[in-house]
Every structure is written in structure tokens, then in C-alpha cells.
Write a structure and sequence with these properties.
The chain contains 5 helices and 5 strands; from the N terminus they run H-E-H-E-H-E-H-E-E-H. By secondary structure, the protein is α/β, with parallel strands linked by helices. It has a 5-stranded mixed sheet, sandwiched between helices. The chain is elongated.
Length: about 290
């Protein structure tokens, strides 16, 4: 009876693991479809972001004594940190890596740190830890549009204009490839300008009404584009991490099922062998009686 009960338990476990495998397989296919769209968006946006940064560097370096609130350096020790995580789990260490890096940033900061959290996982964890979350955006990636980046940009500018904030940084996962994501820490404000570069490659454009006027309109767009760029990178990296996690889960489920089937066969063979032994033993007992 004990062996029969064990056999039933093994069969029950096999059915349970098979159900889990069907779920992880379905989640993998959904993540693969989302990854294709997110990857296309990210790769298409990178050239625009890079060219916009190059254009900004060229314009700022060509204007003498130009001043803008996004270029001004503040003396405050406080900082604002934009933390970009996912809304859901089941993506390996994707969220944990960003959260760990953000917590380390807060601990090492010389002054107070105000957080802007994009994504449910980051917002929930930071609030649970008792950190100063100035703005939380749960379910940020449920309906991802450029208007969300514009809203976050307004919040960043409002916090940066306060006297005690000296810089604004952001932590997010950069999409490297389907199997690789990298946690990045980038400075957002004050806007840093690379005055170097290839001077021979620059064109001498005429700017109307002036370079300064163009920069007044361009710099807020640069900040908005940085937020959107980080969001797209994080979204693609999350889907890639989820594909890898579900692939590993499906593979592990297959291995467990194979091991349980082998164990089931051994137990079933032991039960059959015992039954045959009992039959043979009974026949021998009848002959000797």
C-alpha cells in the first residue's frame, strides 16, 4: 500500500509539473512577441537619441556665455534618482539588480535622495523600505506612451529647481542583446556637454532666430528624450530577461518531469516484481502443502 501511495504521489507531481510547464511555455511565447516589438522600438530610437545629443553638444559649445536652468550647477547635496523597473516579476534578477543598485546609491549619497520610481516593482519595494519616494508610477509599462515620459520630465524639472537638489541621476537596465542586459547609472541633470568631438565633421549652420533660442527649445526635449530612451531600453531588457527566465523554467520543468517519470517507472517495476514474487511464493506454498 505504501508503494502504491508513493506511485500516486509521483503521478500527481508529474501532472503538476506538466501544468507549470505549459504556463511557462505560454509566458515565453508571449514575452518573445513583446520582445520583438520592444527591440524594434529601442533600436529605431537609438540613432535619434545619439544625434540629438551630438547636436546639443555642438550648439552649446558654439554659444558664448549661454545659460539655461538645465545646465546650471546647483550647490545642494541632495539628489533625485529616477529608478526604472518592471511592473511584473518572472524575469529573473532584472528588477532585483536595479533595486540593489538604487539602494546602494541612496546609502552612498552625501545628502538626501528623492526617488522617482517607474514600474510597480521598484515603487513597491522602495516604499516598503521607507525611502523617500517623491513620485511613484505603478503599472507604468501597461500602456506605454511618450506622454508618460513627458510627465516624468516635468516632475524631474520641478524637483531639480528646488535649492537642495544638486543633481539628477537615473538607474535602468540597458538592452544589450537577447541574452544580456546591463544596469546603467547615467547623469541627467545638469545636462553635461561634450565640447570636444570631430570639429571637421561639423557643419556651419545658420540658426534662426539664434542658437540660444534653438537651445531654449531643444534642451527640455533632450531631457524628455533621455527619459523615453531609458524607458524603451528597460522595456526591451525586461522582455529579454523574461524570455530567458521562462526558457530556463521550461527546461527545468522538462528535466524534473523526466526524472519523475524514471522514478515512477522504477517504483512501478518494484511493485510488479513484488506481486510476481508473492504469486510465485503462494504457488510454492500450495505445492508443499
Amino acid at each position: 500500500m505504501h508503494r502504491m501511495a508513493t506511485l500516486r504521489q509521483i503521478r500527481r507531481r508529474i501532472r503538476g509539473i506538466q501544468n507549470i510547464r505549459r504556463i511557462t511555455g505560454a509566458m515565453r511565447m508571449v514575452a518573445q512577441a513583446r520582445l520583438r516589438r520592444a527591440q524594434e522600438q529601442t533600436l529605431d530610437a537609438r540613432p535619434y537619441f545619439e544625434e540629438l545629443s551630438r547636436l546639443t553638444d555642438e550648439l552649446v559649445s558654439g554659444v558664448a556665455d549661454y545659460s539655461h536652468p538645465l545646465l546650471d550647477h546647483h550647490d545642494g547635496d541632495g539628489s533625485v534618482l529616477l529608478v526604472v523597473t518592471g511592473d511584473r516579476g518572472m524575469c529573473g534578477a532584472f528588477n532585483a539588480n536595479v533595486i540593489r543598485r538604487a539602494v546602494q546609491y541612496v546609502e552612498d549619497a552625501p545628502g538626501a535622495v528623492k526617488l522617482i520610481c517607474l514600474g510597480t516593482r521598484g515603487a513597491t519595494t522602495m516604499q516598503r523600505r521607507g525611502l523617500d519616494v517623491a513620485h511613484a508610477h505603478p503599472n507604468f509599462f501597461a500602456d506605454l506612451t511618450h506622454a508618460h515620459a513627458r510627465l516624468v520630465t516635468h516632475q524631474i524639472r520641478a524637483l531639480y529647481e528646488s535649492d537642495d537638489v544638486g543633481r539628477v541621476d537615473m538607474i535602468y537596465n540597458e538592452f544589450k542583446s537577447i541574452i544580456q542586459q546591463e544596469v546603467k547609472l547615467d547623469r541627467m541633470l545638469p545636462v553635461t556637454v561634450d565640447a570636444g568631438g570631430d570639429a571637421d565633421a561639423r557643419w556651419d549652420f545658420l540658426h534662426e532666430p539664434s542658437r540660444a533660442h534653438v537651445l531654449d527649445e531643444l534642451l527640455p526635449r533632450v531631457l524628455e528624450t533621455e527619459v523615453w530612451h531609458a524607458v524603451l531600453e528597460s522595456n526591451a531588457a525586461e522582455q529579454a530577461a523574461r524570455v530567458a527566465a521562462m526558457e530556463n523554467a521550461t527546461t527545468n520543468a522538462d528535466e524534473i518531469i523526466d526524472s519523475l517519470i524514471l522514478q515512477r517507472n522504477r517504483v512501478r517495476q518494484a511493485v510488479i516484481t513484488q506481486e510476481i514474487s508473492e504469486i510465485v511464493g503462494g504457488a510454492e506454498a500450495l505445492k508443499t502443502s
